[in-house]
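Catalogue entry: protein

Sequence with per-residue tokens
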Amino acid sequence: MKLASYRESKQHQLTDLYVAAGDRTYVIGTQNGLFPDLGGHVPGEMGGVWNHPIKLMDGYWLRVSDGSAAQWLEQADEFTNYPFYNEHRYKQLQDLQVEVVRRQFCPDGLEGVVVSYTIHDTRRAGDRTLSLDFLGRTDLSPVWLSERVNRFDGEDHGVVDPKEGVFIGKDQDNPWFVVFGADRPFREGVVDRALFGPETTAGAGVSGQLTYEHVALPDGGSVDIHFFIAGSCHSEEAARTTFVRLRSDHLRLFAEKRQRYEEMLEQTAISIPDKQLEKVFNWVKFNTDWLIRDVPEIGRGLGAGLPEYPWWFGCDNSYSLLGALPLGQFELARQTLDLLRNISERQNDKGIIIHELSTCGATYHMFDRSNTQETPHFIKCAWETFLWTGNLVFLRQVYPAFRQGIRWLLEEKDPDGDLLPEGYGIMETEGLNLELIDSAVYTCEALRVTSLAARLLDEPELADHYGKLAEKLKTVINEQLWLEDEGVYGDVVGTPAVILTKMDDYIADIRSKAGEQAARDMIGLKEQMQQAAPDEQRAWLFKNWVINTPMETGIAPRKQAYRALERMESAEFTGPWGTYLTGPYRKAMMTISTGVSAVAECRYDRMDEALRYVKLIASTFGQVVPGSISEMSPDYGCFVQAWTVYGMVSPLVGFMFGIQPAAYWKEIALRPRLPQDWEEASVERVAVGEGEHRNSLNFFITRNSQEAVYRFSLDQPGWTVKLNVPCPAGATIWLDGEEIGAERAEDEANLAITASRTHEVRIVRT
């Protein structure tokens, strides 16, 4: 599908939000074209026009007049979302006998927004002229946590500059500016703090209204008018310069962004039998791009979600980037990881990865301390980034953080020396700062990959040390955290004496959120603890989704994994839209909990079950924003969330197509395992490696009851492809038309094809 075919529309529930996104600026309002006060981090201020680390405007509105009637555009009848811009269509302007389409987009790399209106005559009674009033409400104000860096909001003031045809707004206490105007001169400009259009917004802003007269509207024809909004947190000159650039180059900037999105669509282009899922997969590419935040004074990286979490997280990105890498987002992955690491190193010398970073440079931690699982998870993600990019310089830069982080995990966070770090995990449940399964699992992974990094970087003794600790911790997890009677892993290791002091709070919390029925599981768990020896150190089952992490990472033995996965698939843990965040609630579901379930199934070749989870995520597509998937399934929380890319891309590209690169060594492992009903699938232009290790893979699979055919090609020669494919007993193996022998084990065949370029492998059943 071409980019032009990607459009999603709504004509109902238009009070839902939307975003017109750029890496420097974005616009958030409602799909009916309004800008209500919304959000919690900066109360009532998370919408409008943002240019991080500041907000520019609460919103903008247009009034149309033809001399006999005047009307504000305040209730669009239809909203259409495109991959990089959106439109509001006003069809019911009967008094004026016009239809209006408002479009907005944010150019790449610029601190500005382009807002365009197309006004179409429906009267058909001769040419006429219109008068237009464009009202912009400033709210030049700082981002969340700015008080920690001594930035405070001041009252806004504004002036009009008739010579340049613009309004200029400034915060009285800070060098924060916004400039807006049109592609034509205005007749009159008004500045007034008490001036509002069709809605009133809070804050210390000021309104500027620019009036444009004698706008010619042909009989039955249309007229376009373009407005430009530019900002700066440094100077008026910078904002004016951006405004001039937008006004002179907006058509070219739109074309350039369209071209970039065309290229994004063509990168890692899948073709699968489920065309709806294929479409959603591609929209998730676009969604991920919407969340890139570039703040030159702080850094560039992938934000978490809109409207509430536009900034950067350690936890979220350790999932999200694993989905972004197969899409070719190598630079974004490195930039994000470098940003997190650099800020973390400024705050501590222990390798502890921060939890949350606002765009003003201030950090935030739940319960005033870092979550334990984020540091090992970061290590795992950074290693995967190295595998995809082959960038040894990057690995050398992050490797010291690997070692420091492991030292912190196994010394400061593991006082009893059992290899199970203590502290808060992903669930961020107050008081649950014990030895948690997600921290243990990701620490095991961190030890494994740091062992591999140490060996590559000529530290064999450390490599052996870390490798042995990883195997030891893997055993601890599979023995001490496995609950044989339950057939799943426990959430936490601890003694009843410690955990019982927290149980009444947990029970009260569950009861308040999900009712008495939901509280019964925790009441039963409390009774178990009361019957156990007070100092008995053992695992306990709180039924949080993180008990899937041993399967997600593949450290669970197959027999245990099958039992656990089958229970996790049941109604006890999985609801109509995905995996519950916690079993006792049986209420809240998230794309990340469901995505982890999908990856966990893939690890054990349960592709039909994995596909079910991926499709559950996809089933929530468009329920709030056309073209997007909400953080909380099916339709609440952030209306776009970065870690959704993990649940959509990793199962498909990493496991169903089975693409696992080792770019530094110029190797690609292909281990395709398709869902049962898929007879054909392909993926093209999968980027692997950077610089001298750069390559691109195309992979095609067809199969029927008689044979399976695997065709692949690489842009650059000389690489080794290690192919593992299903191969039933008695089947013959053909490589490029010649029958060959191959290593076989348990209905699989392994081939290593060196100096690869274009090859076909055929498995023929006899």
About this structure: The domain at 657-764 is CATH 2.60.40.1180 (Immunoglobulin-like). The mean pLDDT is 96.
